[in-house]
Amino acid sequence: MEFKKSNVEEHLFNLNFAVKHYERNSKKCENEEETEKNELKEAIQDGNVQRARIRAENAIRQKNQALQYGWFSARIDAVAQRVQTAITSKQLTGSMARFVQSMDTELKSSNLEKVAEIMDRFEEQFGDLGVQSQVMECTISNTTTQTVPQAEVDSLIQEVADQHGLELNMVLPSA
Known about the structure:
mainly alpha; Ferritin; elongated
């Protein structure tokens, strides 16, 4: 089942659009991480332990989400480059065309688990995309609900306090 070139090019455009979307989301999370760190600094200055912990957890969560969006963007970009190469060399097979159509459909529905599953099948079927990646352990939605390790929270609180020359007026548990 061959797809018309214009149809495949439309799917390629959608893949590239998704790359930009996830890059923007990654940048947004990085900005939100900085905002949370500034709020953390204020909480430390006020000596508000609970608020400091919440802000540290939020900053860490935003950092992790930014990394996952970046990783996801890079993975989709690798697929788009492979499809572009196939279009250019006119070697777009029926199975690759079906893959591209499936990917486009799932990207529109924002079902990241399905997209990751489709990309895994693509990598298996079409070989190395030039991007070494491991299977995604959890989706971005799971990232926002997972517990942030306490040691990481305490470390970030100490780091922000040190960066701004602040003395911690709170007792952090020793690890």
